[in-house]
Amino acid sequence: AACAEGAMAGPRALLTKEPAPQTVPVAQLPMKVAEVALNTGPYSSCGLATAGFRTAKYLPHEWHEHHHGLTLEAAVGCDQAERCCLEARGLARSTAAAAQRAQQDSTAALGQRLQDIHFWKAELQKEIEDLDSETGLLGAQKVRLERALDATEVPYAIATDNLLCRERRQHPDLVRDQVEIELLKEAELIRNIQELLKRTLMQAVNQMRLNRDQKEVCEMDWSDKVETYNIDEKCGRYNNQSTNIQFHPGSVKFEESASTPETWSKFSHDNIYRAEREKMASINLRALIDSILHDVSEDLRMQSAAVNEAFAKRCEELEDAKHKLEFYLKNTLKEIGDQEANIAALKQAIKDKETPMKVAQTRLYDRSFRPNVELCRDPAQFR
């Protein structure tokens, strides 16, 4: 009946002080001093035998007063008890309503908390997936850098081998020509490219390590969010009819290391911010690697074209010089042959002049025997 009355009655204000005790104070009888009634009338008895019956007794009006006081005190006590019961019922109803409202507010707060946890959990999961994907893409770029670095070994070996081979040229052709200049440029370019690729490769390795570290931080935060979400979801399902609820006296204290909602959200926000920063750094590094590989490829291609052009020009010069030398060699050999034939002809001509020489010398010799004046220097002598 009290519960039905409490359900029908409206909520009452909470008491601000402790209600009066529910007991009726014990009424103390007034002390009665024994008096010996003096009877001086004609019917008085002065015998000692009747004196004991009048000792410590009340008069009728005193008894009525005492009885009236007891009933009055009992009525007041009953009235106070009734008021206390009414106040207790009102207090029970108000505390029950307050407890129900507090439980509803707590359930609603848990629901809002679950939404917040789910939001940050989803954001962290997205960042974890993005970081994992970005780390994989950066790993692919790292492989490209390693392959590009390995690919520079062959051109560098070719350039250095060409320089060493050209050192074996003979003295007239051992010249610092355009080919050697371009080969030295190519070797220097390849060395610079190798250093650049090594630095970029080290930067990619460091960025991948930073991505994994930040991913691990986000995963730890995400794992805590998942565990907290499960705990709060279980707490949100608790109600007055739950069978697995019990008293936990020490659960109402606040931990000194507990975070506030602001620091809690800031912690996840900072983790996501750092993850976004590392992700953007990784994206920029991948773009830089693409640009470096493209520029390196173009530089090597241009330098290779310059070396090939220098070789082609030098080969043309050598071919032209070779043709000229062959032409002059042919002419020289022809002239040598002609001169040899001329020499042979001259020798034959000289040989052919031996007989006329003999004739002339014989004539001169024989004419030297002319006598006296006949030994004249006549025209025949000078012929």
TrEMBL record:
GO terms for biological process: cilium assembly; cilium movement involved in cell motility. Keywords: Cell projection, Cilium, Coiled coil, Cytoplasm, Flagellum. GO terms for cellular component: axoneme; microtubule cytoskeleton; nucleus; sperm flagellum. The keyword Heme does not apply. It is found in: Cytoplasm, Cytoskeleton, Cilium axoneme. PANTHER family: TEKTIN, TEKTIN-4. Belongs to the tektin family. This is Tektin. It comes from Crypturellus undulatus.
